[in-house]
Automatic annotation (TrEMBL):
Pfam families: CRAL_TRIO (PF00650), CRAL_TRIO_N (PF03765). InterPro entries: CRAL-TRIO_dom, CRAL-TRIO_dom_sf, CRAL/TRIO_N_dom, CRAL/TRIO_N_dom_sf. Gene3D superfamilies: CRAL-TRIO lipid binding domain. Residues 79-239 form the CRAL-TRIO domain. PROSITE patterns: CRAL_TRIO (PS50191). It comes from the Eukaryota. This is CRAL-TRIO domain-containing protein. Coiled coil: none annotated. It comes from Hevea brasiliensis.
Length: 336
């Protein structure tokens, strides 16, 4: 990270100390008592330019208010079967903690289909996981380890990655733009595992398009990454797709409860129950409302659009050259 520009933090903090309600309340929900660490995250996202960073954070606060993000953990996706379908097609889960105390999130890039619900449900689910991580998991980890823990690590499983169904790139670019603008620098390291040849080919052309700080976060591990990941986490925290011994293993656990993607996994059970309980506390006399929680969908930034277009172009070259049919996912590395 280099030397922290203390003066930039002091200037930025002085500006944010002037924030009044309702921005002040949602700002507190962002920093959860770790104000300096939050200011540093946003400053890094804008290359330590205080004026640009101040605009970014103020825009983020307005986005949270306009879209009622502070209340999103009171809005369960119901019925449960619909939420289970979201979980089965938007593969993400938390498998445990690194030895540093950072939450370990697993993402099934290659096998996610995003075809069981509307875009708004997937965006709602993604933001709810972000908010639960930031408001519940990270503060709890900080207390347990006695120091600020404000980031996580992500293990991206490329199992099943094939030529892209181009319609998915738009949704993934929307989600990544939400993260870029409102949850910057929340991931310390991305570990890529089970990467097929098509990923390696696309990574060569996408990597130069990423900002340097993002490129430095990405580590492509051999096979399922088990041996390398065990250097930073215990076996019990390994994502289920990394637990087989030896490289190249990418089989998912047969028992759904072993998969950290599944609604039956303790992380998702705790998350879902928490949201339902918050809903009942907020409106105890009303039935839980069905329907998605709509969030304004952002326009992709120029960098994200260029990356998406490059991925599409490269994958079409593969399709035209090899005659392979189009399928699953996108390779957008999210700079959050």
């Amino acid at each position: 990270m280099g030397i922290v520009p203390d003066e930039a933090i002091i200037q930025f903090k002085a500006l944010m100390d002037q924030v009044e309600e309702p921005l002040k309340r949602t700002y507190q929900n962002i920093h959860q008592g770790y104000q300096t660490e939050t200011l540093m995250r946003f400053l890094k996202a804008r290359e330590w330019n205080v004026a640009k960073t101040h605009k970014m954070l103020i825009d983020c606060l307005h986005w949270r208010i306009q879209n009622e993000i502070d209340n999103i953990l009171m809005k369960p996706i119901v019925p449960t079967d619909l939420y289970r379908a979201v979980r089965d097609s938007q593969l993400i889960g938390m498998s445990g903690y690194s030895r540093e105390g950072l939450p370990v999130f697993a993402i099934g890039v290659g096998l996610s289909t995003f075809d069981k619900a509307s875009v708004h449900y997937y965006v709602q689910s993604h933001i709810q996981i972000n908010e639960y991580r930031d408001r519940i998991i990270l503060p709890s980890a900080s207390k347990k380890y006695g120091r600020p823990i404000t980031t996580c690590v992500k293990v991206l499983d490329m199992t099943g990655l094939k030529l892209s169904a181009l319609s998915q790139i738009k949704l993934l670019t929307i989600i990544s733009t939400v993260d870029d603008l409102n949850y910057p620098e929340k991931t310390k390291t991305y570990y890529i595992v089970n990467a097929p040849y098509i990923f390696s080919a696309c990574w060569k052309v996408v990597k130069p398009l990423l900002q340097e700080r993002t490129r430095k976060k990405v580590q492509v591990l051999p096979g399922n990454g088990r041996d390398e990941l065990l250097k930073i986490m215990d076996l019990t925290s390994l994502p289920h797709f990394c637990t087989k011994e030896g490289s190249g293993s990418s089989q998912h656990a047969e028992n759904a409860t072993e998969s950290c993607y599944s609604l039956d996994h303790p992380f998702h059970q705790q998350l879902y129950n928490y949201i339902k309980q918050q809903s009942l506390i907020n409106e105890p006399d009303k039935p839980i409302k069905q329907g998605s929680f709509h969030v304004d969908l952002p326009e992709a930034a120029a960098e994200g659009t260029k990356i998406a277009e490059t991925i599409e172009s490269e994958l079409l070259k593969f399709e035209n050259g090899n005659g392979i049919s189009r399928s699953a996912s996108s390779l957008k590395i999210i700079d959050d």
